[in-house]
Amino acid sequence: MRIYLARSRAFCAGVDRAIEIVERALSKYGPPVYVRKQIVHNEFVVNQLAAKGAVFVEEVDEAPPRSVVVFSAHGVSPAVRQEADSMGHRVIDATCPLVTKVHVEAKRGYERGDQVVLIAHAGHDETLGTMGEVPGIHLVESTDDVLKLGLDSARGVTFITQTTLANDEVSDIVGHLVARYPLATPPPSEDVCYASQNRQKAVKELAEKCDTILVVGSRSSSNANRLVEVAIRSGCQASLIDDSEGIPWAAISEESSVGVAAGASTPEMLVVGVVSELKRHFGDCPIIDLRVNSEDFEYGVQFTIPSGLRDSSSDTHNVQEAPSGSDETFRSAQPPTRKMRRTKIRNPNRRF
Ligand code: SF4
């Protein structure tokens, strides 16, 4: 048995920031802090924050008037902002800046008079937020949808994409879109975010070396689901598992080369748990960390937190030493704090 670790994997800067915003809001205002939708699409993270006093709601009107309300990393539409204002909520916005960038592109295209096309998955929280930014956005989920579009080919077309899509899927759809509407213009820079792209590249690299790939992440995570698809398209077996309890033992043997990847909303400690369980089952085995991307590029990315939370007491509350010790220690540890997460990311192998 050999274990290959995807690199990049687990938390991105936008997820890291969103979780820290909720933690700081709890520290500054005390519970309950209401969070509209899952702050990030990971059950473990949501449960841990709920245990600290975060209350997850579907809509802002489920929180009593004048509550502290956090918007999730996936963003919201202006209508949601207005409703929160009308209820007197103190709003803290944890929308990832890279999602906000897509919202801005939608507004710019609309203001130019373009028809705006969003390549995204219907019903995803991010899609709903972006669709609400400007009236009349055309949603495209597949190349078939491009054929069904009834756009005016004499007018400009701005197209934007959900940040967590598979790059290959987007390229295919964009190819069809541009062929049909030559006036279609791409966003000034890539909408599929750096974190999604890096994790997909890492899974492609894993697929060349592994028989099966375990993608650690929740079913609700678009990012993690795309990694499974990328692995399968690359010719590898792949399973999406929440944590070590989901390891598909029947698909793994002593002779296997197993890849372990994780979506951008998955805590590193769940990856640690999966690797530890594989080792417990198959004994000590080589662990190879595949560095596909420039570490400086991925892990130099940080997004600032909202100014109102920067001076909270949690500035120091969050600074703890990274855990050291047995795999059991990692499994039973609390979710990693910001400093712990950074330390783990920089030296993932030191714990195995
Ligand atoms: S996956 Fe990308 S868009 Fe989503 S939070 Fe992370 S960096 Fe932001």
Structure write-up:
By secondary structure, the chain is α/β, with parallel strands linked by helices. The protein has three domains: 2-12 and 194-351, Cobalt-precorrin-4 Transmethylase, domain 1 (3-Layer(aba) Sandwich), CATH 3.40.1010; 13-96, 3-Layer(aba) Sandwich (Rossmann fold); 98-185, 3-Layer(aba) Sandwich (Cobalt-precorrin-4 Transmethylase, domain 1). The chain is 41% helix and 15% strand. It contains 14 helices and 13 strands. The chain has helices at residues 13-29, 43-51, 78-86, 97-111, 125-131, 143-148, 167-180, 194-209, 222-233, 268-282, 295-299, 314-317, 327-332, 338-346, and strands at 2-5, 33-36, 54-57, 68-71, 90-93, 115-119, 138-140, 157-161, 184-185, 212-216, 237-241, 257-262, 287-289. The strands form three sheets. It has a five-stranded parallel β-sheet. A four-stranded parallel β-sheet has the order 3-2-4-5, with helices on both faces. The chain has a four-stranded parallel β-sheet with strand order 7-6-8-9, with helices on both faces. Helix 7 links the parallel strand 8 (157-161) and strand 9 (184-185). Helix 8 (194-209) packs parallel to helix 9 (222-233). The longest helix has 17 residues, at 13-29. The chain is flat, with a radius of gyration of 21 Å. The protein binds iron/sulfur cluster. Iron/sulfur cluster binds next to helix 1, helix 4 and helix 8. Iron/sulfur cluster is lined by residues 12-15, 73, 96, 98-99, 163-164, 193, 195-196, 223, 264.
